[in-house]
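Hey,

The postdoc asked me to send both predictions to you directly instead of through the lab channel. I've kept everything plain text so nothing gets mangled by the mail client. Protein one:
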Amino acid sequence: MAVVGASRDPAKRGHQVVAALRASGFKGPVYPVNPAGGEILGRRVQVSIDECAAAAGEPPDVAYIGLPARLAPEAVRACGQAGVQAAIVPALGFRESGSAGARLEDDLIQAARSTGIRMIGPNTSGVLNTHAGLHLIGGEPLPPGSLGIVAQSGNLALDLMTRARESSVGVSVYVGVGNETDLQFHEFIDWLAGHEPTGAIAVYMEGARDGRAFFEAVGRAAARKPVVVLKGGKSTAGARAAASHTASLAGDQAVFSALARQFGAVEVDRSDELMAVAEALVLQPPARRTSTGGPVVVTDGGGHGALAADALSGLGCPPPKLAPETMAGLRELLGPSGAVANPVDMAGASDHDPAVLARAAAMAAEDPACEGVLVTGMFGGYAVRFDERLAPDELAAAERLAAAVRGKFLIVHSVFSRRRPRSLEHLTELGVPVHGSLERAARCVAALTERGRQQQAPRPPAPPPPAGFRGSSAADGDTAESAAWMSEPEARHMLSAAGVEFVQARLCATPQEAAAHAEADGGRVAVKAVSRHLQHKTEAGAIRLNVCGARQTARAAAEVLREAEKWLRAVGLPETLDGILVSPMLPTPVTELILGVRRDPCYGPVLAVGRGGATAELDPDIAIRGLPVNATTVAAMCSELRCAPMLQGFRGAPAADLAAIARQAAALAGALEAAPELREAEINPLFVYEDRAVAVDALARMANH
């Protein structure tokens, strides 16, 4: 390794890196590089990277560029020309600092690409590989561990390293991705997936250069080892700027969370959960899912039991009911005061005999519905709370507890965790995670449950989209301002050509023509004003339903045109109207859905399926997947919705035709694939019947290039 910009000043990074490599036991040769020459920490300083390569007999594998931003491009170019394979650039002052920094970053990437050198950074918080003794993040060296971390924040890196020192799994590799100017998230995740010492991967991400490639790498890695992700910057700016229901419902964070689930990652919401959940996934076996299974809560206090049950239920893994024979055994063990239904409450039975809690956990673990055990309460502190002579008994109970639940997961929450009693330290030594936060312990249980579900009911990640089917990036100008909405008839024409089945509709130029068409049709009709500036007709008062006869149709047509003009004028949009759309009223459906596809600026093409109608945004009920999808995936999306009972035949009503929903979704996705200029399209509502699904209204937005 070469350290370009090495310094004799202990306060400078170029000195600290040389010192850290020596302290961490880096086994390869280290060559300080500085034009001033001399000696640093007993090592001769080379005056250039070329002299360094000559001294080594071959180019260094990696160069650490400890120079200011303005000098980094030339240093990277010199390293590349000398045959160095990779560079680490920690300097700040590139695109994150404004237009001048962006130009400097362009120079940096040009230097890398012209010479073939690969680069981490700039603005990277450093690189760590404990198994190689490579320590380039500052602070004290860490012992080798099994958790790989890829992060986008220097401060969070410091936090994670602090937590790693307290963790029983430790860190194998840390990479601060920085600006992703060259090497990107997905490349690091792919590498960690094949890195044998790494047992799980933890990711902190604010944004990725290629979000779809990120999730495809997550999917490949999650097939081999757990991947835990924490997303920062959960912005809704994209949703606020969009006019379609789909874009507002499938906002940035909604898309991220949906793709995390689709590609097999476990997502956490808090910084203190990232390391904790990853540690649990390394140390404990995932749940072995059963149709009625879940975690068993064993507690020595009713309050903790109730809170644990609430937390687990809120995380989607409610405690299941135990078998009668299990409850009978627990009743015999705990006596009449104990609660045995799950949560299992000691009710004082373990206060002076900690072994009782271990025996209760062993009984619970044998129950067919038990997928793992969460112990919560005072365990580990009985000697503190009641009698110090209980310490040996509690230590023995800890040993028995860990052995009794072996084969299923065990997570412990203790109010005495901060006092670090020997019994809890021993549990940690045995690979049992111990937490002082009940909520964090419950999140670990939920992660083990989720991981078990992923492994036992594998849903292979969607294959990469066909060529040209990735979403465009924000840099390509994919914004609401750079794209144009189509009128409903135009959207219908495009989507019909892709196979979407619509209710028939006639575009009429005048109220009189609309009346004549309605009279010829002979039934009740819907009357809508048409304008490409009119995405939400109900909001503008530009739609009338259940209109009957020529006279009512003429009056309704005149009203919707007048209301549309008034609304467009009020919001400052062109008062351009293309006529009136008249379509027959359909029978009441089983339910109304919304189907939407769009090219997400970061994550590529996505499909949204949700409860539809004019009020869809008031109480969002939506499922999202990355495209492409198949009929099985669409059916699974429908089953996730809160309105799923309506689709399944609620209270004797007919069930919806899921195959017809899937056909309409496939056709909508096909339109996106066939037309690269199509940015988003939406059907709302989709009337779903027991034998068909009919699109009633449509929106589409095209790139305005």
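Protein two:
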Amino acid sequence: MHRTTTGNIYRSRTAIFLAVVAIFVALVGWPATPAHAAGTKCADEFTITNPTPPADQLPGFTPGGGTAPSYPLDSYQYENLGVNARGLQLPSDPDVLKSYGTDTTGKTIGTPEHVFAAWNRYVADQKAKGRNPLPFTKWLNRYVPNMGNNNRGKAFEKYATETIGLGGDDWMCQEQIPGAEEDRTFDAVNHKEKIAYEFKSGNRVDARQLAKDARITARTGYRIQYVFGSKPTRGAIRALKNAGLNEPFHLEATPEMTTPEKPIANLPEDQILEPEPEQNPSEGAFNDLIGSSGENAAEQEVIDEADQWLGELMGTADELPISPGGIDFSSMELRYVSDAPGSAGVQYSFRAGDNVSDTPSFGGLRDAQLTSDTMFTWLALNPQSFWVNLNPDQPDKIIDPTLATTDAGRVMLTSDLTLKHTVSTLQDPENPTGKEYWKEQKGTNDTPPCTGTYRVWIEPDTATVRESGNELYVLQTPLKVQAERLIIKTPPAHGQPCTLPQELQDYNLGIFQKVIVPKAQEIVNSDPRFADLRRVYASRIVAEWLRDRDKTKAGAYHGVINSGNVNKWPARTSWDPQKVYADYVNSYKNGDATFEITYPVDGVPEQFTYTTGGVYFTNTPKAPIPEQKFQSTYKALPKAVTLAQQAPVHYTPATENATTETWMGSGPLVRTQPPPPTSSSPSHSPTPSHTPSPSHTPSSAPSTTPSATASESAAPSGDLAKTGASVTPYGIAAIAALASGAALVTWRRYRTR
């Protein structure tokens, strides 16, 4: 981290002395060498109690095959006055805004004077470059973390130096490298070992600084090691590699912001998990990130540019905060809540993966709103209304009419249709799965292989959680794909239905369950097309826990539970259940995928054209895992969740092939002033394109529900499995539902002779 100030009198006097010597040398004609300010011993600069490790045991310098140092998940504090700007609104009078000017010099960070001057300057710079500026609220959400760059960087430098143990006589802090021929100061240097450390509290690098480092290491032979306080972005890792530097070291440490004041309110568009956001807004790292997440890739690039602009404004472009674009918002799910009885709101954390694409991740606010809206839907409605139904024999029972007004219903029904398309595609013999499937199918002398009609559905599979007092940790939420036979009366519009003997149809369906179903299940649990389904399922687990606990301990959502009112959370995406059903019926009757296979009839090969279609949903209960396993696998998770309220935390479970997860949290805002007047109007009010009439309400769940027989009817209770264990997997009564449908494989015959 490069700094222009030294922070102590001794260092300043040394710099002046060296500068005078350099001038004197030039006057008398002696050979001049670049002057640089001498650093101080790290042991004199910081309180170092950890032992100083030898060079081959330092982070980033262990020899090939050696074990890298391991440090516990930790935190450090820094002051950021930028927090005081949260909730600030632009003046409605343009002349008033203009009066703040564009000069931030001498103005206190976090005050309207500093914020509006910086904003005016940003807008002018963007217009001069022919670019559109960000909306003020998104820009402000990046202003807040960037105003703490310098303090955060200094605090992490202190934390890293003391944690690694860079003491003794050989470690110098804020030191330059002899012969570098660059204006470059490193956080810690060991001249004896010819190694230098650069500490970054964020997860990015400064390209100009890195270019200097590449030249310095080439000229001097010093090894330069970057240490990040947050998992570096793939772009940062790639840039370091291209510069010829060591692989970066990740010393996970969460920066905790401190400020003498508290904001009055959060930005209005956040409102996540807040039934009355005007009264009980939330604050935290999650709000900052989703509030500045772009709606698309292009806007996210503008946001990242604003980060750079704010860093340059403050002279801290080498110490930028974590970028929203480095987090894979498409994988984001609600995985933790804490609901103390009588509290104004809940603390919560979302879990997400890393962005593996070079394109900045976007859509964080949209995904958070979907989670929040669907959770309130699960709380407000009776679980018996959580069903959808795609069945060509039942056009009058597609979805509960109230559920149809919400995004929960939209995600359920459209995911049903997506599963059907997925299963159809997998049966194509042109792909490896389809090739294996048809290789094992059986037919008769005059009838090619086929299965008849069957249903395919998605249900929860071993959703495990840990309940600890007022807290719920959602640990695993895998989904399962199932298939079984279903008789459908509606005939297809083409081809011939399967006429094989029943035992052969059952055998072929068994091959379908063995080959096609596992691949479909893999897709449901990983493919972006089912990301929303996985997201709303996680919120369903949390909602059912809140509902169950509210029976004896009234919590923050007591007024929502079983209210039957979802008017505050209408579908944000316009959709029509009838259109989804029409697409399904068209697929069932006219085919979803068409392909050909060759099958011998009387010893002569003939071509048969196949057409496929159909889908289905249901659920299943699960069993608990022991407390000991939670402690061994997720021991650090409670601390990670706590720290995630302050800043994104990277955490890796102790499981085989585990990947690093990003946790982001928020909680109820602690006010210092009374809340603003409340408004009964919802923050958004799109009107669904289809609102079923009361007559559309089925008297019960569809008759073809998933059960022992196709004719039985069973509605989900919504209850969670009671196990009495501290780590309890919950079998949710249908992610939201009972749905029924059919898949049909028909065939046409063409002789090849």
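Summary for protein two, as requested: The radius of gyration is 31 Å.

Thanks,
C.
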